[in-house]
Amino acid sequence: MDLARRLQPSHRQPIPLPHPWPACVQGMLRQGAPWLHGNGWEGDLLALPGGPRLDSRWDGQRWITRVDAREERGQPFGILEQMTVSGHPWVGALSYELACGEAGLPHQVPNPGALGMYWQGVRQALHVEDRCAEIWSWGDPATDEFADGLARACTLGRPQLETLLPRWGESTHHEAVEAIRARILDGDFYVANLCVPFDGAWSGDFAALALSSFRRAEPPYGALLPLPGLSLLCLSMERVLGKSGSTLISEPIKGSVPRTGDAEADELAGNAMRLDPKEISEHTMIVDLVRNDLGRVAVIGSVKVPKFMALRTYPTVQHLVSRVESRARPDAGLAEIFRSMLPGGSVTGAPKHAVCAHIASVEAAPRGFYCGALGWVHHGDFELALPIRTAQIFEDHLVYWAGGGITLRSDAAREWQELQLKTQVMRQR
To answer: Which of these ranges, 18-27, 82-91, 272-281, has the smallest mean pLDDT?
Structure first.
């Protein structure tokens, strides 16, 4: 469905772009405008800062949720559901740990004060598709703020990112992979997603970092979201969950091979991946998990897989992607759907509870917003990317996670190589 119909702006006003897209929005990004970028979002959506805000923080015992600094009673997803029935959309993200807590899944305990969810209400936004730009507004007609911001073009300095360093080495990763394989042999679970944080010092302007990263990665679900105390730079290829009317869609990714730039070699590598027993078994198990998760909130008999193990190509990598669809039960609200589906099966494993308990005991740190969810919500509809290939950017350093699914057929050396592949988009400047 067309994004304008899903977001239902009250007013749409064409606007000429005074400078080339997307360079013309650099100044607005510097001012903190949230940006959803890519064809997965059905065009670019740049929100004007200043709308209402919803955030959840861990106080050491529970998540405390506030709307414009006013504490609200209830669970975070329930409060989000209540707030997003308003007349305007909300753009934001939620963390892996908060999603696990809402779903009753084991997870590492965040540090007191850790941000678990942040959403900004959007009163006015710039939408760009096929180089045609419009100002969308909800409520009052558009103001001149966007036109003024676009007219003030600025030149940003080149971002500098030092080498990304993993928090554990190859031998530790090998041990962690073998421990999972042993658990699988014991019958505890079938597949587990093991992730490693990489740390890097950086300097410059995060808007320039985002522009250069989007240009290299061409992510269908790119985003730059300024949050309190950090910014998220998302270069995701994966749609964890979307809802349009009664239709629910998830597109899990499992299976990765690097692109070399040699078309013939890349085609052979992609075809070989589709025939690899390890990739087939891993992908199939995750699709089954997603089908089961959707089935908990779906009309009986409506879950289907119209696309299975399709090969998708990106600038640095090729992936196997499936599409799982269902019709949501009429009584299933946003909170129930989120608790059923999040965190995504492709970044946990099967069965979810056992796997989440294991990775919580072995991973080097809480994941934060990595592997949570990111996107927009409006009147019960939503579009959420899985924040993989996502940097959590702080003042002078960033944390960038990479991971992979471990099965009985996994080779520890290949799994370590896959982590390096998934960090390439950030390493290349």
So the answer is: 18-27
Domain stops at, among 119, 151, 183 = 151
Task: Look at the block and give the residue holding tokens 């979810």.
Answer: 352
- Judgement on whether residues 417 and 325 belong to the same structural domain of the protein: yes
For all residues of the chain together, what is the average pLDDT?
A: 93
Tell me: the pLDDT tens digits for 345-377? 999 999 999 999 999 999 999 999 999 999 999
Q: Which amino acid is at 49?
A: P
Opening angle at CA 119, ends 115 and 125, nearest 5: 145
**3-class SS at 211?**
helix
- The answer to the question of residue 209 being in a domain is no
Q: What pTM did the predictor assign?
A: 0.95
Note if 304 is an active site residue.
no
- Reduced to 3 states (helix: H, G, I; strand: E, B; else coil), residue 329 is coil
Annotated catalytic residue within 238, 282, 325, 363: 238
User: Which residue among the candidates 243, 251, 254, 279 is catalytic per the annotation?
Assistant: 254
User: Which pLDDT score is estimated for 315?
Assistant: 86
Structural domain count of the chain = 2
Task: Print the domain residue range for 170.
Answer: 160-200+237-427
Q: What is the distance between the alpha carbons of residues 250 and 384, in angstroms, rounded to a whole number? A: 9
Q: How far apart are CA 224 and CA 393, in angstroms?
A: 10
CB atoms within 10 A of CB 87: 12
Q: Is 133 exposed, middle or buried (0-12, 13-18, 19+ CB in 10 A)?
A: buried
CB 249 within 8 A of CB 242: yes
Shared domain for 267 and 345, answered yes or no, is: yes
Active site residue 307: no
Task: Report in angstroms the alpha-carbon separations of 63 from 41, 138, 193, 231, 285.
Answer: 29, 30, 25, 20, 32
Q: Predicted confidence band at 386 (pLDDT cuts at 50, 70, 90)?
A: very high
| Polymer length of the chain | 429
Position 254 scores a pLDDT of 92
CATH of the domain at 299: 3.60.120.10
Tokens 């970092």 belong to residue:
209
Domain termination site, one of 115, 134, 151: 151
